[in-house]
Amino acid sequence: MKLNLAEWGNKLHSGEKTYPIVQQRKRWFIVSGVLVALSLALILIKGLNPGIDFVGGTEFQVTGTSTTDTSIAEQVVAQEAPGETPRVTVLGSDGIRVQIGVVEGPVAQSITAELAKGYDVPEAQVSFTQIGPTWGASVGKAAIQSLIVFLVLVAIVMSLYFRAWRMSAAALVALAHDLIITAGVYALSGFEVTPASVIGFLTILGYSLYDTVVVFDKIRENTANLTSQHRYTYDELANLGLNQTLVRSINTSVVALLPVSAILFIGAWVLGAGTLKDISLALFVGMAVGTYSSIFVATPVEVALRDGEERIAEHTKKVLELRASGQTDVAINDEGEVRVGAVTKGAHQGAASQPRRKNRKA
Which of 35, 51, 228, 260 could form a disulfide with 192 if both were Cys (CB 3.0 to 4.6 A apart)? Predict the structure, then answer.
């Protein structure tokens, strides 16, 4: 029998259907560890490709050309600035971008004239921008500072909101996971890291954090009265919260990724390199990785940290002892896993399961 999305979501929310994501956290830690290690290796070995906004340099843009042959620009640079290695990129169907290091004004003017001649356009259609290395270094410093400030504020706000440092730590681990993998994709693809890319990085961190907070909020709701019951452990109730928000996380990601993928396609293959391409790759990769981390990294890390807490450990031990002795009945699925929810769908659990009134007078 086919299960539609609404039925699937209802079954996940009620606990009738569940995926042991938290219980299988070692598997996800291995996957994430491998991805992070590969990303770090790419960053260290291949390196990122910083734009001239960070390292300084000279950029020429030719518009309205009848040809986009990059060899013309390469020959011009080789002739006018022999010591420079140009980075030539096609912009759309009638544009060329040439990036080299910082050169003297007369050299830049000479390259401008030769590019106009080589592409058969007026000199007015060849523009150049020059950024000094000092300015580029200051921009890079500002980008790093903004990232550090963002992470510090996240740690403070998360700790105050959830009143639990473990949730704050788990959220930061997930954010670092997203940032490293996204940077690794940039290193692998060779895309330039520009100020637009940094904006994209900060945007995806905010997106990932939002998704993580929603999951943590549900977990906090499920475990608010943890020690007042002895049927389920913290791990099982946290896994229930994760499953209850699973459909929402998937739906939000799909809705967000569709327009971003369209922007990435248009920016990379239709319009050529530019701001759209720089920011959309960060958004696309970051949103996909952020969804993964909020499900398979943040919550499992938080549960692993909470399991070391004395109160949680004692409660878990008590639940398992009662379960082994048969004093606590729980639903077990075909795989032998505990299903958090009603033992029998629609059945009354008896007077013992009803909440007790305190200070009840006879």
Answer: 51
Q: Which helix (H) or strand (E) holds 283?
A: helix 275-293
Give residue 260's Cα distance to chain centre.
14
Domains delineated in the chain: 20-50+135-313 (1.20.1640.10), 57-131 (3.30.70.600)
**In whole angstroms, how far apart are CA 103 and each of 74, 95, 110, 132?**
16, 22, 11, 10
CA pair distance 216, 11, nearest whole angstrom: 20
Read off the tokens for 86. 């140009």
What's the CA gap between 187 and 240, in Å, rounded? 37
Residues 6+ apart with CB under 8 A from 119: 62, 65, 66, 67, 72, 96, 126
- In angstroms, the CA 303 to CA 321 distance is 20
User: What's the CA gap between 221 and 223, in Å, rounded?
Assistant: 6
- Mean of pLDDT values over 283-301: 90
218/238 Cα distance (integer angstroms) = 8
pTM above 0.85, yes or no: no
Structure token digits, residue 249: 């996380």
Task: Tell me what percent of the residues of the chain surpass a pLDDT of 90.
Answer: 19
Sheet order of strands, 95-100 included:
87-91, 95-100, 57-63, 126-131
pLDDT at 53 over 90: no
The mean-pLDDT minimum among 35-39, 53-57, 180-184, 324-328 falls in 324-328
